[in-house]
Design brief:
The complex is a heterodimer of chains A (257) and B (305). By secondary structure, chain A is mainly alpha-helical. Chain A has one domain. Chain A is built from ten helices and no strands. The longest helix of chain A has 32 residues. In chain B, strands 5-6-7-3-8-9 form a six-stranded mixed β-sheet, sandwiched between helices. In chain B, strands 11-12-10-13 form a four-stranded antiparallel β-sheet, with helices on one face. In chain B, strand 1 and strand 2 form a beta hairpin. The longest helix of chain B is centred in the middle third of the chain and has 16 residues. Chain B is elongated. The C terminus of chain B is likely disordered. Classes of the chains: A mainly alpha (257), B alpha/beta (305). Chains A and B meet through helix 1 and helix 4 of A and helix 2 and helix 3 of B. Chain B: InterPro entries: AAA+_ATPase, ABC_transporter-like_ATP-bd, ABC_transporter-like_CS, ABC_transporter_ATP-binding, P-loop_NTPase. Chain B: Keywords: Antibiotic resistance, ATP-binding, Nucleotide-binding, Transport. Chain B: It holds the Pfam family ABC_tran.
């Protein structure tokens, strides 16, 4: 008879983490349709805007491309990955009982969450790198005037989108519902945040609201960093608040099975 | 000490009592069947043993460990195959088995494991593209990835064709040869009769009986039936004097004898003594299914046979 003493204690080791992360990366990479929007749409936006008003400037002489188009493209990347892609995987895993299956192995289901966040982050970095490279090569865009600030606000924007995505992951009952909810949030935040044209053309209260919401705030903050303007605290507070509210909702409602 | 001990497990969901009072004692190295109709509480019981559901009352020990307090240690030594669990669909059979292997300290060789469940030809196929039976076999392979000392197999052969089912049974028998303790949840009588050393019959959240499959049949006290045609004149009194015989009657020129115990032997001896030559003998022994029905009362739901 087996005794208790010879059963090894402790959780899964680094190999388990690594292989689960690789597994999640394969899942994401093999879901080709899911990669089209986060990696393709920003490029399309860059190219379309680049062709139509590549060297236009605002009234005070700032490049429109650097102030709005680049920030918009980068925000789309992190919003799409954070609000739509990542949550739909998590909901699918819960719904199809993948998490439950994992719960009977030494690997805890939370490892999937960690691996998904990591893979999502890699997707974001990849999308941002592609976007910035294309913009620099073909549309004469320079590096951000305040590089450190740009990286920091982009990081904050990414955190915000992933937090919002966790609301979707917590509340959506099915994969279909997750994709639908995620897309609705993505487009709603996007529309209010200038995705379909300058926010100035919206009614003033809507534009003001949109600028505080995750998408608009991210576009504004990244744009400001790129052209070397000071950060408007309202945008940073808007994103911070979104992280806190989303985090609270996700912690309260997220279920593993 | 048993490999798996469950004491007084209770679990209710709202007004539904899934487990009223379940105690099981699974010996080390045995194949222990958990048999019951749909909704009898089998899955709830094994999920409590696996540490997936917290019992409202009662305790569980797996190899002496508490599945909640010693979660990580229990997971290292207990393999579990769940009903209806999906896996990472875009991963191939080989990738899945290797992935799950990394979760464990000690484990089986992935290639060998895939061969054992007969999926070597499909090791490069994505899980999504597999048939139901093939997915089931992957699921069983993953339960064995950590070379467990005990495994819970919930509806092992669902979706398998007869040949694959026999292959799976042979694999379970090999687990027993290796000293692995197996808890087999099933409603397939043939599977339980063939594999299980002991069976717990669960009905309405309670253990109705625990015995060997043949012990359950004996316990149900069901009659065996022997039929034959006598070559010449035959006096039923010859058989009515035999201890184990309950009744003798004639129907369609055939004699029908019912009884218990070693009926066939006793009747044959009595007939030889009385110098009766018989033709067309047939013998029917009550099986586990008859015993199941007798011990749990109501008729089976039908669809799940």
């Amino acid at each position: 008879m087996t005794t208790t003493e010879d059963v090894p204690a402790g959780g899964p080791g680094p190999r388990a983490w690594a292989s689960l992360t690789v597994a999640e990366a394969k899942m994401v990479a093999r879901d080709t349709a899911g990669l089209v929007v986060p990696l393709g749409l920003p490029l399309l936006i860059l190219v379309m805007h680049g062709l139509s008003f590549g060297h236009a400037t605002t009234a005070d002489g700032v490049s429109l491309f650097e102030r709005y188009v680049i920030p918009l493209a980068l925000t789309i990347v992190v919003a799409m990955v954070g609000i739509v892609n990542m949550p739909s995987f998590l909901v699918h895993y819960r719904r199809a009982k993948v998490l439950r299956r994992l719960a009977v192995t030494p690997a805890h289901p939370s490892m999937i969450l960690g691996a998904q966040l990591f893979v999502g982050l890699v997707q974001c970095v990849l999308g941002v790198a592609i976007g910035v490279t294309v913009a620099m090569l073909f549309f004469d865009v320079g590096a951000p005037q305040r590089t450190g600030t740009a990286v920091a606000v982009l990081g904050l924007a990414t955190l915000t989108m992933f937090a919002v995505g966790m609301i979707v992951a917590a509340l959506a009952p099915s994969t279909n519902a997750a994709v639908a909810t995620g897309l609705v949030m993505f487009f709603a935040f996007g529309a209010l945040g200038g995705m379909f044209g300058p926010a100035e053309s919206l009614p003033a209260p809507l534009a003001a609201t949109g600028e505080m919401l995750p998408f608009g705030a991210a576009v504004q903050a990244i744009g400001a960093a790129w052209v070397g303007a000071d950060q408007d605290p309202a945008h940073l507070i808007g994103m911070g608040a979104a992280v806190l509210v989303s985090g609270a909702i996700a912690v309260r409602w997220f279920r593993w099975d | 000490m048993g490999a798996i001990e469950a004491r007084g497990l209770k679990k209710r969901y709202g007004d539904t009592v899934a487990a009223a009072d379940v105690s099981l004692d699974v010996g080390s190295g045995e194949i222990y069947g958990v048999l019951g109709r749909n909704g009898a509480g089998k899955t709830t019981v094994v999920e409590m043993i696996a540490g997936l559901r917290r019992p409202d009352a009662g305790s569980v020990r797996v190899l002496g460990l508490d599945p909640w307090q010693d979660r990580s240690r229990v997971r290292q030594v207990l393999g579990v195959q769940l009903q209806e669990a999906a896996l990472h669909g875009a991963l191939t059979v080989g990738e899945l088995v290797r992935l799950h292997r990394t979760f464990y300290r000690d484990g089986a060789d992935p290639a060998e494991l895939i061969e054992r469940v007969g999926l070597t030809g499909q090791r490069g196929t994505r899980f999504d593209k597999l048939s139901g039976g093939q997915r089931q076999r992957v699921s069983v392979a993953l339960a064995l990835a950590g070379r467990p000392r005990a495994v819970i197999l919930d509806e092992l052969s669902t979706g398998l064709d007869p040949e694959a089912r026999r292959g799976m049974w042979a694999m379970v028998e090999r687990l027993r040869d290796d000293g692995v303790t197996v808890v087999l949840v099933s409603h397939l009588m043939e599977e339980v009769e063939r594999l299980c050393d002991r069976v717990a019959l669960i009905d309405a959240g309670r253990v109705v009986a625990v015995d060997t499959p043949s012990g359950l049949v004996r316990r149900a006290g069901l009659d065996q039936v022997m039929r034959f045609r006598a070559a010449g004149p035959f006096d039923p009194a010859v058989l009515e004097r035999v201890d184990v015989v309950h009744s003798v009657r004639t129907a369609d020129e055939r004699v029908v004898v019912t009884g218990t115990g070693d009926l066939l032997q006793a009747v044959s001896t009595a007939l030889v003594r009385a110098d009766v030559t018989v033709l067309d003998t047939s013998f029917q022994q009550a099986g586990l299914e008859d015993a199941f029905l007798a011990l749990t009362g109501d008729p089976f739901d039908g669809e799940e046979r």
